[in-house]
Amino acid sequence: MTDFHPRVFSGVQPTGNLHLGNYLGAIKNFVALQDSHDCIYCVVDLHAITVWQDPQELKQNIYEVTAAFLAAGVDATKHVVFNQSRVSAHAELGWILNCVSRIGWLNRMTQFKEKAGKNRENASVGLYVYPNLMAADILAYRATHVPVGDDQKQHLELARDIAQKFNHDYLGENAPPFFPLPEPVITGAATRVMSLRDGSRKMSKSEPSEMSRITLTDDADEIAKKIKKAKTDPDPLPGDKEGLQGRPEASNLVGIFAALSDRDVDAVLTEYGGKQFSEFKPALADLAVEVLAPIGAEMSRLLDAPEHLEAFLADGAARADAIASPVLSKVKEMVGFST
Ligand code: AMP
Ligand code: TRP
């Protein structure tokens, strides 16, 4: 696969409540990859509507995710930032890949089961084929690397299976592949940030309790309050990683500390091992405020001038389209469409 141009693609849904998990699991890594790779970062609005979204709120949330990318340090002039629905290749390739992907493959997707819940009959068909559209997002740019949180690993494996089957079905066994097999980039000390109220649940946008997550728009007081109230256990912090076994809340807070300070968990425990949460939590709150408050402030500055965000998105869409269009044309030709 060495002959593919290295290219990064990732997406975030504009569904509100962008949180610390989104930042540490994804957006922070988007920024880190920019120096070494060509990057495309997408606000995936087509994915968002797999669950009902209020149209006015959706529009605002598209701006919010765009602002978060920029405020976190994504360079939208050197790289590409846009919203998915503006580039028709996503939906078009998505359809073709719906015909490559298998029902049996989708039936294994745990995120669908979680999101559809008990009333699966009433979930949208879009929610079911969501991973095929995600594969199309990535493959439309023949992207090679995909930075995501741990919860997207299974979707990435499916994207690789789809790429492989497309290559096989349209080119045969021995021809050089048309699509690369995209690699997940799941890095950092907090690839799965857990709820602050329950260490067994993922921090999520849709959890009813606001105390379960720190959002990117929380101010310093809110950040400090949520960390102070975060669930813990009564023991002091252990001296090494092994000591975090069976302590999900402690593990989560230490992981967050490590990721926010760009250290590994062992380094944090070397400093805080033996200390009580009454000492650790204020240090974590200070660190979180130091990292997140400037991002929140910059987001609100950007959101005050949506016309600028609009201009970034329009420009990004034109540049994304210029990359995806030729790929889609080639796919259409390979499939046998008259174009
Ligand atoms: P979403 O909000 O579902 O569009 O997710 C956007 C990105 O954030 C994806 O790469 C997710 O894997 C990542 N992400 C979402 N929740 C978490 C979490 N609790 N911990 C780490 N990464 C997360
Ligand atoms: N499914 C991802 C999520 O919910 C968002 C997403 C859509 C994505 N398309 C993508 C992520 C392509 C990486 C690459 O988090």
From TrEMBL:
Homodimer. Catalyzes the attachment of tryptophan to tRNA(Trp). One of its GO terms (biological process) is tryptophanyl-tRNA aminoacylation. One of its GO terms (cellular component) is cytosol. PROSITE patterns: AA_TRNA_LIGASE_I. A motif ('KMSKS' region) lies at residues 202-206. It comes from the Bacteria. GO terms for molecular function: ATP binding; tryptophan-tRNA ligase activity. Belongs to the class-I aminoacyl-tRNA synthetase family. ATP binds at residues 13-15, 21-22, 149-151, 193, 202-206. It catalyses: tRNA(Trp) + L-tryptophan + ATP = L-tryptophyl-tRNA(Trp) + AMP + diphosphate + H(+). Keywords: Aminoacyl-tRNA synthetase, ATP-binding, Cytoplasm, Ligase, Nucleotide-binding, Protein biosynthesis. A motif ('HIGH' region) lies at residues 14-22. L-tryptophan binds at residue 137. Signal peptide: none annotated. It is found in: Cytoplasm. Pfam families: tRNA-synt_1b. It is an enzyme of class 6 (ligase). This is Tryptophan--tRNA ligase. Its EC number is 6.1.1.2.
